[in-house]
Amino acid sequence: MRNYPWPVDYFIEKLSEDVGVIAAAFYPRPVIVRLSDFKTNEYARLLGGEGFEPKEENPMLGFRGAARYAHPAYAAGFALECAALRRIRREMGLANLRIMIPFCRRVEEARRVLDTMADHGLKRGEDGLEVYVMCEIPNNVIQIDAFAELFDGFSIGSNDLTQLTLGVDRDSEIVAFDFDERDPGMLEILKLAVEGAKRNGRHVGICGEAPANYPEIARYLAGLGIDSISVNPSSLLLTMDVVAEAEALAGLA
User: Fold this and answer.
1) What whole-number distance in Å separates Cα of residue 123 and Cα of residue 106?
2) 136-157 as b/e, with b when 16 or more CB fall inside 10 Å?
3) Are 68 and 74 in contact (CB under 8 A)?
4) Is the dihedral of CA 101, 43, 46, 86 positive or negative?
5) Class of residue 11 by CB neighbours under 10 A (exposed 0-12, middle 13-18, buried 19+)
6) Which residues, 6 or more positions from 86, have their beta carbon under 8 angstroms from its beta carbon?
7) Which of 39, 74, 131, 214 is 20 to 30 A from 103, comparing alpha carbons?
8) For the whole prediction, is pTM greater than 0.85?
9) Hey, what long-range contacts does 55-61 have (CB within 8 A, 24 or more apart)?
10) 64-78, pLDDT tens digit by residue?
11) Residue 203 has pLDDT above 60, yes or no
12) Using CA atoms, how far apart are residues 36 and 75, in angstroms rounded to an integer?
């Protein structure tokens, strides 16, 4: 920060330039950036973080994602995130950047976050801004029609959605054997999520390890007509073959 008049300027410039490089590389195709979703224990492990973060018994279910953005304890930090993204879209001219809100528990919470973003110059629909939400909490699926009124698309977070549907802490090795995205209940909730998004004319994709680890899940989702599947690089070619096969069988290719 030595050559910057204020640390805030450093943060906004660095974040906007790093994200902007990715948005520029794919322009004019859409690029989705997910807002911060560190847990309190993850922030606390960063340099200087311990003095600012509360200690929680279960950070995975605590002060994370959307809960932070309008909260007094993180409002100033969220304002910096918004300033960086606003700079990318307005000053850099990269209007292909879309924003995704993670771990949004309730519809009312979604409204608060969208209002806060609008206050910071990131109003959904203005200058073509699309805002997505992670679908990673059972309530996101149960109330998908209500969430669809507020957002332009969904990204299914299979890791958290599996954890919360099956009640399995994905950070606990002792119960790891019960963490399985192929469980019949999980397949049903994935189906409800995709069908709910489609019913409302919203984009729906999936991120997480499930489609990469289990080709049968990628095949299943492709058969449901999911719009996009994100996988790690090592699984890309296999997943592409699986998806192409499933789409051909479903008459979608």
Assistant:
1) 19
2) bbeebbeebeebbebbbbbbbb
3) yes
4) positive
5) middle
6) 120, 121, 122
7) 214
8) yes
9) 58/169, 60/163, 60/169, 60/170, 60/171
10) 999 999 899 999 999
11) yes
12) 12
